[in-house]
């Protein structure tokens, strides 16, 4: 019996050496879990389940090779699809695309295959829970998982529906001036009478705007006098009116006519009356204070402006510019703290518009600020144009049809957070949704396992959430190689869930979990196993010597 006892010791030492050698061999295997040989002693047991008090035992037996699922160190990499679980749990994978079988692993060396599926080095398909547009899942059953496939390389654009601009408009800004303008012209009429009895002896001369006109002949009639005057003047019209008065008409209706009479009048029949003022009128016009219209092509018509990029349903970019003008209190009933705002697009963006010519979406939005500088009210009346798709909404909307042929959309402009303070003009916040067409640039994985496809337009679209599995007795899992396991009856059914919830650990992207083998401990154990083997060999040698001694007895 001593031979068999020693032989069992040799077998046990060999098994221990094998386990430790396997651990050492896999010291650099990603996700590897070290094993430990567990032994039990052997005793002869009677039919009644008892052993003799003097029983010495019958050696040792290997009871189990138990895996130790302690956490391995994380090693960070540059690959976003290198995944490590920090805590409990296993990655769930499918050996075949349409297979219902599930295998589990801690090795997170994943990549994308030619069909866009995320697979392990062995070609196993990573399983994920389906998610909605916000990244939420509806079920955590392992049966709800499926292989994850990346979306097409081109991401669809999204039309802008909301634009928010928060500005500070300087409270000390001056209202926009209309600039110089011509005064309203007035009119004034004066007349005088002159009686001439004999042109043969009487001479009359006068000046019209510096031109000397002399009358010293017999004209026979007043029309002849008018003709003579006309012949000596340039640029004026001279004629008789209905009452035979000579009327001078200037070439410009606003130009003055100056007539100076000078000369000698002889003979008792001549009577000269002094000029007397006739009817006169001063020019007048009703002037009503009003707000100067904003003209994007005239920087003098506005104080400040800011622009934002919006997108149509085809992903085309369009620039929306808002213009601001301080309003004179006198123009709005002595109400202070008011600004006018206008919103324009480039005309080339709108069907029927002209490129380079601003196209008005809103021309007379009135911003009223409270005494503390906060925005009070916004009164707007957007222009209604023969354009169907864009609806820039203030209190109602403006409809416009994109020249690009994009579908209709409604853009809501809000000014919440705008102020009127003493500081300079600035845009404190400008947010706009929507985005152009994007190109797939990679995959982002968050610590809760949510996978997002990232695009060149800055968008990250949720495509799935990594499923983790755990077991009541993971040491009872069936080892299938390639650092993978299968569920067994002794392990219990899989418990599926999300990373970071319950007992599940978090997922670290761009990292791998190293083997949890402690090389120093294994080398020491290797020496111990070697000594055990040598000791059991010595026991066999000793038993052999004793047996030989017995044989030699005669």
Automatic annotation (TrEMBL):
Q: Which residues form the Flagellar basal-body/hook protein C-terminal domain?
A: 508-553
What are the protein's UniProt keywords?
Answer: Bacterial flagellum, Cell projection, Cilium, Flagellum
Q: Which InterPro entries match?
A: Falgellar_hook_FlgE_sf (IPR037058), Flag_bb_rod_N (IPR001444), Flagellar_FlgE/F/G (IPR020013), Flg_bb/hook_C_dom (IPR010930), FlgE/F/G-like (IPR037925), FlgE_D2 (IPR011491), FlgK (IPR002371), LlgE_F_G-like_D1 (IPR053967)
Every copy of the Flagellar hook protein FlgE/F/G-like D1 domain together lies at 84-166
Annotated ranges, domain Flagellar basal body rod protein N-terminal: 5-33
Q: Listed GO cellular component terms?
A: bacterial-type flagellum basal body; bacterial-type flagellum hook; cytosol
Please give one Pfam family short name: FlgE_D2
Q: What is its main location?
A: other
NCBIfam families named among the record's database cross-references:
FlgEFG_subfam (TIGR03506)
**What role does this protein play?**
A flexible structure which links the flagellar filament to the drive apparatus in the basal body.
Protein name per UniProt: Flagellar hook protein FlgE
